[in-house]
Amino acid sequence: MKGCDFVAELTSMRNIGREIEKKLKAVGICSAEELSQLGSKEAFLRLKTRFSNVCLVHLYTLQGAIDHIEYNQLPDEVKRDLKSFSDELK
Fold first, then answer.
1. Where is the signal peptide (predicted)?
2. Exposed, middle or buried by CB within 10 Å (0-12, 13-18, 19+), for 69?
3. Helix or strand or coil: residue 24?
4. Local mean pLDDT, 10-residue blocks, the chain (90 residues)
């Protein structure tokens, strides 16, 4: 984890609490900038690979964090796209 211990910026993002921050850092995503650059799908894929209990709501949470909105305010079109992506991983 390249310097993750010194970055606490993830929790400054909407929807990102300490627990999801801990999981993101465990898969090498250490900052808000890294999460935004990777995108919600890649971040979710990394989380899903490491943590089997990660679910669709986590994917919505990540996208909401990137878009600066509450995850339950994501447009329906975005939710459909993310759900389709999540379903393909099963």
1. none
2. middle
3. helix
4. 65 95 96 96 98 97 97 98 95
Please classify residue 20 by burial: count the beta carbons closer than 10 Å to its beta carbon, then call 0-12 exposed, 13-18 middle and 19+ buried. Answer: buried
Nearest to 40 by CA among 67, 69, 17: 67
- Residue at token pair 């339950």: 72
Round to whole Å and give the CA distance between 47 and 21.
11
Measured between alpha carbons, how far apart are the two ends of the chain, in Å?
28
- Looking at the domain 4-88, which fold is it? DNA polymerase; domain 1 (1.10.150)
pTM of the model: 0.92
Q: Tokens 């999801």 appear where?
A: 20
